[in-house]
Amino acid sequence: MTVDVTRARALADVPHGFLGRRGGVSTGVTEGLDLGRRGQDDIGPELAENRRRAVAAVAPGRTLSTLYQVHSAECVTLSAPVDDGARPHADAMATDRPNIVLGILTADCAPVLLADTAAGVIGAAHAGWKGAIGGVTDATIAAMEALGADRARIVAAVGPCIARASYEVDDAFRARFEDADRENERFFADARAGHARFDLEGYVAHRLAAAGVGTVEALGLDTYADAARFYSYRRATHRGEADYGRQVSLIALP
Q: Are 196 and 190 in contact (CB under 8 A)?
């Protein structure tokens, strides 16, 4: 099975891809193109092969850099590929180096890929709800601007993540967002008593647009609802599965 690559129309001129679970060599409950580390320090043969296949599907010959993601709003700027054993504790990256492939891992959180091709600058962010409300996309835009990007020229795409129909939260969660900005109520829909459904994708797209990003595209793909195509932490938890996988989203300079 070939690697499943979803591309954004807005990033058509940029090597990139939102990958799913198809096309990898992992077995068991995380069968497919699982890029998860699950606390392991060393890259085993299955993970190494999945990483190779992922890069080959999007930007052959480039070097993959990933992060030790911690659900923060931290963005790092890369001037050279990251050694896998020294991954920064952060949730976003920016670079102007053509040999680097930026990789973000997700399993319901929103992957965001960004580019200003005129400036030769790209970015990638892992936007879970904590990072999203904390400003991880704003930090990514600022890091890109420090490299010469212009936010009005930046094109951003929000990839597969858990959709509002699948994302039930409690009233305390909702209050956290509405206390930050009353207009955030638009990203919630009432559910059963004491609960609501949260539109993570819509909120992340809003944060990008509000920051002045010139073009924002949301792909509208629900990781929770499509088990054949995507890994999902929440789905695995609801099913009582012993483990869950992580898909990768990649971007490189043309």
A: yes
The mean predicted confidence, pLDDT, of the chain is: 96
Structural contact between residues 248 and 19, judged by C-beta atoms closer than 8 angstroms: yes
What are the structure tokens assigned to 191, written together?
Answer: 């559910």
State the residue range of the domain holding 81: 5-163+199-251
Q: Distance (Å, rounded) from C-alpha 120 to C-alpha 97?
A: 8
pLDDT at 85: 83
pLDDT at 214 over 70: yes
Asked if residue 182 belongs to a domain, the reply is: no
Burial 117-153 (b: 16+ CB within 10 A, else e): bebbbbbbbbbbbebbbbbbbbbbbbbbbebebebeb
Domain contains 184: no
- Checking phi first, is residue 49 left (phi over 0); if not, alpha (psi -120 to 50) or beta? alpha
In the chain, beta strands by DSSP E: 5-6, 16-19, 63-65, 75-78, 92-95, 100-106, 110-116, 121-127, 155-158, 168-170, 188-190, 195-198, 215-218, 247-251
Is the pTM here over 0.90, yes or no? yes
Question: In which residue are the tokens 């409300």 written?
Answer: 133
Q: Tell me the backbone φ, ψ of residue 181, rounded to 5 degrees.
A: -165, 115
Indicate the SS3 state at residue 70.
Answer: coil
Q: What is the CATH number of the domain that holds 62?
A: 3.60.140.10
Split into its structural domains, the chain has a count of 1
Percent of the chain with pLDDT over 90: 93
CB 215 within 8 A of CB 77: no
Q: Does the residue 114 lie in any domain? A: yes
Residue 154 included in any domain: yes
